[in-house]
Amino acid sequence: MDEQDQHLQRAINTIAQSDPLIKLLQQVRLGRMKPNDAGLRAVTESWLGVYAQVLKSHSLSRSQLVRLDPEPRLEVLVEAGVLSWDHAGTKDLRALFQQMVVAAIA
């Protein structure tokens, strides 16, 4: 595994550690938590921040960045009512990702 792949793996691991989809979203689907639950909101806000930090702090190629695309995860959170597309954190993360992809080395 080369250095770039190690950076990518570290980025994925860091994002996964705070990912609200793993356990908390299931609680929403089962009705044990509401999408606007304060705890879920805090975890989700933290995850958005971690995701942004990871994108900013890892030097990745465009093909590696595409593997970190937050859009699929954001879509699930929006569909569950946890986030909205006009939420500041959602908009900021999407914009940051697009900037990073455009600026990345092919």
Intertermini distance: 19 Å
* Count of separate structural domains: 1
Radius of gyration: 14 Å
Report the total helices.
Answer: 6
Summarize the structure in words.
- The protein has 106 residues and is an all-alpha fold.
- It has one domain.
- Helices cover 67% and strands 0% of the residues.
- The longest helix has 20 residues, at 38-57.
- It is globular and about 45 Å long.
- The model has no long low-confidence stretch (mean pLDDT 90).
Brief rundown of the structure:
The protein has 6 helices and no strands. The chain has 106 residues and is mostly helical.
Outline the fold blueprint.
Blueprint: H1 3-17, H2 24-29, H3 38-57, H4 62-66, H5 71-79, H6 88-103
Keywords:
6 helices, globular, 67% helix, mainly alpha, 106 residues, 0% strand
